[in-house]
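dumping these here so i dont lose them again. two proteins, back to back, each one seq then structure tokens. dont judge the mess
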Amino acid sequence: MARVAALSGSFRPGFGYQENVWAAHLARQGHAVRVFAPGAPAERRAAGFTIQRVPTRGLPRRHLFHTTALAPAVRAFGPDLILWFGPPQRFGVDVARDRRLADVPLVAFMGQNRQMHTFDWRERGAPWRGRALAAAYRLLRGPAVALAARRADRLVCNTPETADIVLDLLPPADRRAAAPKLRPTPLGFDPAVFGFDPAERARQRGARSGRVVAAVSSRFAPEKRPALEQIRAALEAAMDRAPALDALWIGFDDGPVSRRLAAALDRSRHRARVERRPFGPRAALAAAFHGADLAVFARPSISAQEALGTGLFGVLADGGSMDWLLTGPADGRFFAAGSTAALADALVEGAARLAAEGPEARVARAARARRLGYDRIIAGVLADVPRFTG
């Protein structure tokens, strides 16, 4: 069994981010996994692996870190494999530069997509703020991306557009060398939590028999407010046209976005057809998905893959970041990103399809989504790292 070091500047125990699932899955396989994350020096055990905090400076709220303490801590662990999640956060730069760790295979994970912001300051039609963000990103984070491209054995790219964005951030010589390392790989779901369970479906449906329930799952964070507002408006319009369509909102907390959204839902003419649930653990999210029929996402989200894992019909934005998640029309609909009318149309079409199909269609969707299970994704990535034999 191998010793695996996972580096993550934004690691949060208990969340469904890919670094959490990679660590838990590899630990279940018997590997010794240690997640290195920023914070006051400390160690703890969780989900079968160790979390080691190391001191940093920088701008934690912007996920921008500097440390010289990480490389010595990783060397002391003695890894056989290094997983570097989010090189643009710069947490891991000293590890990538460390000559004594140069012989250890390293896989870097990139997730840049244009739903975040503009990445090319030369982009025609981009607003000045977008150009400024792109220039700042290239200046502050671009060197870490280039370093990761040089050091990594493989560059896992988590959206269909990530590879192009990463290559554009690199100098021409690095671009040519990095191209063979790129491994486009979608985000996935933990199959130990998200799968289709007919008994759970029966428990969750309750009085919803004969209804079509659209699930919206998100952290109600400020940067997600425009997408959430678009979904709310589209659902309002779709529910006018589809009398059997209900809504399930998952992710409420005590923050300002939740309060604004709750107030808007209270004013809705369809408020009696709307259910709200708080942000909670992944098992609770999986249970909630079993009570729904379709899931709607206007921007990339970890829970998009998790929803598909339970067999939900996906209604997803076609903005370039989720375009590979559906295998065909039986699995969902894409809508024009940014268009509330197109999203409403997709919801109405999806509700009509789901109202007409039998329970076997849900089972088939969940089976097709198994390609996104992290057990398969992890096995595929590691099999593609020739220097790793663990």
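---- next one ----
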Amino acid sequence: MNITRFLILGYVVGIPLGVVALYDIARLKRRAFRISGHHKMRWLGWTIAGLISGWGAVLVGTLWVLGNARHDAIDVLEKQRRA
């Protein structure tokens, strides 16, 4: 596989995943990030930078979906709803 196809594949996979991650991050409240110890603006910045590079969006999107920051922020929101 040559480098051009590799880069195109990164954009084909990365852009949709990056957009989904960006939407998911944006819909969560900043307060949930603050309470959970993570930074919303940092995640937004990483996702936008990842969208520029294609494969970076794949990496950031995967880390967002599988990482602790998303789950911690959602847990904070769930606890606030129950209280």
